[in-house]
Amino acid sequence: MAMNAALDAVVCLLLVSAAVFGLVSVEQSPPQNPGQADAVADALATTTAQVPYSLAPGVRALDDADPRSGNAAETPLDSPELDRTAHGSLAGLLARAATGTAGVTLDSADSDPEAVPLTRTRADFRRAVQEAVRARTGATARIDAVWRPYPDAPVGGAVGVGPRPPTAGVHTATLVVPTGVAPIAASESADFEALGRAVADRTVRVLLPPGPAHVTLRGDDPAAGLVRYRYARIEAETNTSLSVPLATEDTDAANARVADALAPQVTADLRNRYDTPAAAAESVSASSVRIVVRTWNPSAEAR
User: Where are the domains of the chain?
Assistant: First the structure.
């Protein structure tokens, strides 16, 4: 319950209070067997880090998109008001970075959503997390955190840390981190339509956590402008209108409209790729981020 609450809060990345913007500090000592993937995976799960970051990249992108966007765009990029600090396990931070920088590419089958984040609000958070993980795992490890609601979905996010591994002598381990939304229940996979709607609902909740977004939208600080811009971006990607619910900060209603727009494509994707709703439901992964750890000995790189 605590992890889910933390994920909801930090995925939004707009409710975490600021501290000092400086070097990443990582707690705990290095693993005794750095060449073993399971040791690195265990370290990611148990090591905590404090990562300072800034919302400035999001403000810069917002200013470029709409100079009339209000308080966010008017805030100087070096303002302490944009500084934030997040704390958590390295695995949890990777998961938040993957979901927080997710993209949506409904109109382009050739584009990876990971390559086109909805906004750049989390760009510096992602950089800070990558630095924290890199400092902990070294030069002979590759870590990839990936969130996709289902295989080849037009929505998703990914974060990679470390060099590409050699072609041989690679050890692999996997971690699964919850995103804060519930797994698909058996009752939601009775048919493709019900399953598609359930997946769409969960996908939108990860992209736009309604509780934190509602609280943030009621303010008049830069964070409120950044959340509104995030809604504007997904409004454009899904070709739906959110002006009415957002006029009263009704994020539940806004999210429902986005899910309504997303559900038909999700349903069609699952129907085209799977023989039965039950088989499709087994492939759904909206409720978790998958972290794959690959390690190797330095000698393997010379082969």
Answer: 2-301
